[in-house]
């Protein structure tokens, strides 16, 4: 995703975790976590090294918000 920042007016979504599940490298979260839309949190508990990437998401969302709604 980072390599394609120069492309504007687009939406990018990381699906790496989905590929891990489909390839059989990781299991899906138990049903409880899925039903409560907390599968991401379950994966974070299972793979704590993800915290660095996940902490960048709010910063990214704020950047997008500023660019879209606070243009002058």
Automatic annotation (TrEMBL):
A Pfam family matched in the record:
Glyco_tran_WecG
The record's GO molecular-function terms, alphabetically, read: hexosyltransferase activity
Which InterPro entries does this entry report, sorted A to Z? WecG_TagA_CpsF (IPR004629)
UniProt keywords, alphabetically:
Glycosyltransferase, Transferase
Which NCBIfam families did the record assign? wecG_tagA_cpsF
Please report the name of this protein according to its UniProt entry. WecB/TagA/CpsF family glycosyltransferase
The upper taxonomy is:
Bacteria, Bacillati, Bacillota, Bacilli, Lactobacillales
């Amino acid at each position: 995703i980072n390599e394609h920042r120069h492309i504007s007016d687009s939406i990018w979504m990381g699906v790496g975790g989905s590929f891990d599940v489909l390839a059989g490298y990781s299991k899906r979260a138990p049903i409880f976590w899925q039903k409560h839309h907390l599968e991401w949190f379950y994966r974070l508990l299972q793979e704590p090294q993800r915290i660095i990437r996940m902490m960048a998401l709010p910063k990214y969302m704020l950047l997008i918000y500023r660019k879209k709604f606070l243009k002058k």
